Amino acid sequence: MKDRILRIMEHEGISPSKFAEEIGIQRSAMSHIISGRNNPSLDVLTKIMQRFTYVDTDWLLFGKGSMVKNGITKIEEPNLFRENEINPPIVQVEPEYRKHTELSKPEITTKNTGIEQIKYEERSSKNVSKIMIFYSDNTFETFTPEKNKKE
C-alpha cells in the first residue's frame, strides 16, 4: 500500500511533506508510512480518497485495476492565479479618477537663539590631613601625608 501512496505522490508531483499537508496529517505520520514502520490507518486512507477523488478505491486498498477511476485524468482544482470561466479576469470599464490635493510647503520659522554662558565656579581645594585605620582587635593606626607634616 505504501508503494501505491508513493505512486499518487509521484502522479501529483509533490513531496511526502506536501502530501501530508494536503490530506491533513502530520509529516511524521507520513514518514512512518513511507518507511514501512506503520501501515496507513483507515482515517489516512479516507483522507486520501477525499482529497484525490480520481484515485480508484479498489486500486488503493487492494492493488486491483488502475490508479485512475474510469479513465479520468488528474482533476485540477481551481487555481487562484489561473484565469478561466470560474475566475474571469476583472476588467475595469472606466478609469478611476481620484481627487488629488497638493501639499503645501511648510513654513520655516527661525528662533533667535541667545548665547548662553556657562560659569564655572572653582571650589576650594580639600586636602587629606589624616587617615585612620581601625582593626578588628580594637587597635588603629594614623597616617599623615608628607606635605602636611612639613607645614
Number of helices: 6
- Ranges where pLDDT stays below 50 over 5 or more residues in a row are none
- Choose one word for the global shape: elongated
Question: Structural class of the helices, strands and pairings?
Answer: mainly alpha
Please give a quick description of this structure.
The protein is mainly alpha-helical.
Key terms for this structure?
mainly alpha; elongated; 151 residues; 6 helices
Description:
The chain is elongated and about 110 Å long. Helix 2 crosses helix 3. It is mainly alpha-helical. The protein has helices spanning 2-12, 16-23, 27-35, 42-51, 57-62, 146-150; strands at 131-134, 140-143. The protein has a two-stranded antiparallel sheet. The N and C termini lie far apart (107 Å). A hairpin with a 5-residue loop joins strand 1 and strand 2.
Record the SSE blueprint.
Elements: H1 2-12, H2 16-23, H3 27-35, H4 42-51, H5 57-62, E1 131-134, E2 140-143, H6 146-150
Antiparallel strand pairs: 1-2
Helix pairs in contact: 2-3
